[in-house]
Amino acid sequence: MTVRKSELLDLLRKLPEKVDLDDLIYRLYLREKIAAAEADIAAGRVLSAQEVRRQSRTWRR
Description:
The protein is mainly α. It has one domain (5-59). It has 3 helices and no strands. The longest helix has 22 residues, at 21-42. The protein is elongated, with a radius of gyration of 17 Å. The relative contact order is 0.09.
């Protein structure tokens, strides 16, 4: 994962004065997952709701 310094500083400015390190790591993790999801959407790597329902039926077996 690569983060621009300006993006990291913006994230840090939005945090409270005292922040738990685990919370900071989670926010970075969440930021990366959202960026990956947005890239998937832009590339057309998505499933319809019907396809998700069809696939999820096999998960319960």
